[in-house]
Amino acid sequence: MGYCSHTSNLFATWHRPYVAAFEQVLYDIIQDVATSIVNDTKDEYKPAASTFRVPYWDWALETDDGAVLPAPISGSAYIVVYLPNGTLTINNPLYHYNFDSSDLSAFPDAPFNVWKETKRYPSTTTAAASSQGKLVGQQMAQSQDSYAQRFMNLLQAYPSFANFSNSAWTPDSPGYDSLESLHNQIHGLIGNGGHMSIIDYAGFDPLFWLHHANVDRLLAIWQALHPDSYVEPSNEPIGSAAIPQGARTDVHTPLKPFRSDTNGDFWTSDSAADVNRFGYSYPEIQGKSVAQVKEAVNALYASSAGKTITRRSTVKAETDPDLAPLIAAGLSNEAPVDIIPNLPATGIYTEWLANIRVAKDALEQTFFIHIFVGDFNPDPKTWTFEPSLVGSHAIITPYVMKRDPLQSTIVTGQVPLTRALRADEQKGLVDMTNEENTKEYLRKNLHWRVTTMDDKDVPRDQVPDLKISVVAANVSAADTDDGVPWPVWGVMHVQADITNGRPAGLGTEDPV
Question: What is the pTM of this model?
């Protein structure tokens, strides 16, 4: 087991000095490059190099062309770089990482010990496997509504750091989502059996660092909005190389192995709380009040994550000769619809969400839990592309994750349902002004399935500790006291009668 804190109150804060350490290495290299320039442009390169910081990939932001993966990441294996004396075509460093033979010999696990470069959604598990970049982009786009809404929900509905920070189940708390759970969804959709989907190997994919820089950004925005909540004392559910399972941790726990000074002191959650100590910030928070942070977040995400909805289906028939025909029948071009049409005079509407609870070691490997509203193709290879899919939640594990029923850690996640319901309401299929009608519609049309990373269906009732439930919360869409439109969430109430009696559905007598 490595140093990384997963399913832990330290998950978010541990990754901050981790990304900063990587940034420092890149920074030093860039300074060397700038210093080596000897022609007339050297005075331009040095100041630019001094401002370098690790870029972040904002996967929650909807783009004009609908693409979620930026072109520099997924477009080509080669790029043209501009040098003082001309141009040069090189391997795209964001497309994949190339291993040498000594790297591979150090890896104990197949197929990672035969893949000469990092893989995303690999076509096979043999040495001849290729990354399926187009499919990665398409399934990312299909689930973009899900994680954009999750992004906003975490900022608005999770004021406690203990709930916000990590995926460990807190009994009697229906707020099942977390920064770690959302982060896991991205890992799963990018890796899909490749490096990003396995904890031991994820950091080799260049996209890991852009993803985690954005995770740190989400943490920083949440901190700016909720300055009175932070790391609280808790017990480590799983543990790490530095922290034994069950150990008590708090804001002063060393975030090993990252040292903060030349005296050998380690960073702690307390010392890492302010991004400015690391010499960087984010545009949404820098020099801004809480109200200004809300305005900045609304400007970026209100249309894609709060006010309009689009049931995406971006798969193109020419992408994969075997897979595309199975998916193409479900293609749709539905126009965006208002997420809260005919808002009552009270300014209150209902959010509906699917809660996911399962043992982290349930399948002894990384796996997906797919949530649908409506019919879907029976072939599991199509499930991350289905128009009726509202979210594919990922449980990310190490390569070796042995099942231990006596010490198993239960983890949670949450998939928003409201957009899918609103889209179906516009078709006349459900009346969301009627709670009983909405519940009956979900009883008939809410479905969930489980797959491993190789797209194999796992019977729901054979997944240890899997429980799917539905929660509903009244949300006030009115302006808050500072005058900035910012929804205020009420308590999430479990609707066990929707899932009671179904395979892996939460029953009326089950603990929340």
Answer: 0.92
